[in-house]
Amino acid sequence: MKRKKHDNKYAIAIYLKRGKDDIDLDIALDFQFALLAEDETVLILSTTAETCIFTKKTLNGFYLRADDIKRFIEKQTTHPCNIKVVCRMWYGEGKLIDIGNCFSLTRLEIETFCFSWTIKDFSSLNFYKKAKVLIKSHLNKPLMTFILYLTNEAESANEILNIDIMTHQNTRIATFESSIQDVDGNKHFCGKEDYSIQGKGKIGTFKLKQTKQELDDSKNIFLPNNVLSLNCECTICTGVYLTINEKHDFGVISSDSRTEIFKSLPRIKSSSLQDALISMYDDSILSDMELRTSTKTFRVHKNILSARSPVFSAMFQADMKENAMKYVDITDLDDDTLDKMLIYIYNGIFEVHHWESASELYQAANKYQILILKQLCSEFLASWICATNACEILMLADTHDDEELKKCAQTYILSEKEMMCSDNWKKFMNDNLQLAAEIMYLKCTEQ
Predict the structure, then answer these.
(1) Less crowded by CB within 10 Å, the N or C end of the chain?
(2) pTM metric for this prediction
């Protein structure tokens, strides 16, 4: 799959490419692509209008418009980021000989990071003065640069706020969204855009919905102490990092079945172990244990939980009442956190979108000693540190002896001088004297 600009819309391009072979002849094929929903129903179907000729350098395929992809993702309730594509190929007018199936898995390298951007002395921003922020990776290498500047709107005298988005590594796709945080901590959405690029450099320009004049007119709300606070989230795709052909057998499909080829298609299930395990969880197939919160019961499998968590393993092997009664009361986790933990246990999928839920999942992973999940939560929290949560994340890291996360929180607090003058910091010092003393010691040793 490939994403590019087409008809002024960003789209996903799905195409066939002839592989390396020793055949000197061109190959004539008809083919269809379909995007399947989670229940295997066809949501998007594209068919060649005529037979395509494949030379050794030819690409043939379809462009799927962004609006179609958006509608497709909205219908995906369990795993909205997963796209299942079915392709059928046939040639000739002969009788039906065989049906060929090939199950493949492609994973894209995706990185999502969130950051708070504080633009001080906002009123002095003009057409010549720009604000810039550099985002580094967890390896301390330059990742992205964002540049805020003003331009004039052609039809009026409005000063438009623009953000140029630059990447320092090879990037294929990027999504950027931003919101303004007001004096009460509320977020006001500025917009969201998708971009396509091949390589490094400028990805695109993001225009905020609010003009400079609109912010100045409400400066008591949006510009406390003449400071503009932006909350930004950026997702970049740097390409494919894993492609696996899981199962295949070859054959030919007669073109007689062309018009009905997908309507009559039986439900196709991927043969991957991950899909099979998550299906066992979703459908409670042969479950032999229940995990009960105060409001919901989750049917699970003792052997799978035991393989993933030493705590569950010890619980189910010991002579405990839970083992005999076939249920365990989980009183300290809410439904959403327990569900996210079980999805990871069964399928290795890390589904977290906000720092609050990451914090809850972090504590659950620590309790049940699911160390990789704990590390994923830790890395997510480190990327979400901002003025409103830095102290909470610092306390969380200290409680669970997470030195890496603790260092990230300390570094952020030290870099935000205004934070140490706030009422929140005074309260933090009163309640956490030892942690506050460590911060002050680090501040003194830096000078």
Answers:
(1) C
(2) 0.43
